[in-house]
Amino acid sequence: MDARITPEGDTGEGLQVIVRPNRTLTLRGMTVLFAGLTLVVLTIGIGFTLAGAWPVLPFAGLELALAGAVLYRLFRHADDHDRIMVDRERVTVIRQRGRREWRDEFQRYWTRVTLERGRGWYPSRLKVGSHGRFVVIAAGVNEKERESLSTALGNIISQKRG
């Protein structure tokens, strides 16, 4: 997955970084994909039903229901992102997953960015926080982008401190 790391610029209120996983399938793309899949699966299912193999059609319906559920989940999470805002006093992390949103604030001076390396094939975890309370961010991006984000956030937070 790719991340779009968007520094929104220093607007006087602070600096903002938005991290989004790469979502290449739009709502229209999902609709076209599901319509095409439906056409192919139902054509095959009806063909087998007409040939006397009627049990194929219920399984075709089950396949379409499963594909529809997966596409619906993708649609619900299309706008997932992590927003990190750094101002003079604090670092605010807003994590949005579906309809839920978590907001964590830390004092800027004490905030640390840590990248915990994964063991074996486990991915690393990028954490932001202070005083023993950390939140995991950028879980939906690849290792290289997580490392570059770790470096960039560390630099941004330390520049704002000084």
Give the overall average pLDDT. Answer: 87
Largest sheet: 5 strands, antiparallel
SS summary, helix count: 3
| Unreliable parts | 1-5
Q: Spatial order of the strands in the main sheet?
A: 1-2-3-4-5
Q: Order of SSEs, N→C?
A: EEHHEEEEEEH
Give the class from helix and strand content and strand pairing: alpha+beta
The global form is elongated
Helical residue percent band: 25-40%
* Cα Rg: 22 Å
Structure description:
It is a single chain. This protein is an alpha+beta fold and 162 residues long. Helix content is 40%, strand content 31%. The strands form 2 sheets. The chain has a 5-stranded antiparallel sheet, with helices on one face. A hairpin with a 7-residue loop joins strand 1 (3-7) and strand 2. The chain is elongated, with a radius of gyration of 22 Å. The protein starts with a strand and ends with a helix. The model is unreliable at 1-5 (pLDDT under 50).
Keywords, please?
162 residues, five-stranded antiparallel sheet, 3 helices, 8 strands, disordered N terminus
Task: Lay out the secondary structure.
Elements: E1 3-7, E2 15-21, H1 27-50, H2 56-76, E3 81-86, E4 90-97, E5 100-107, E6 112-116, E7 125-130, E8 133-137, H3 143-161
Helix pairs in contact: 1-2
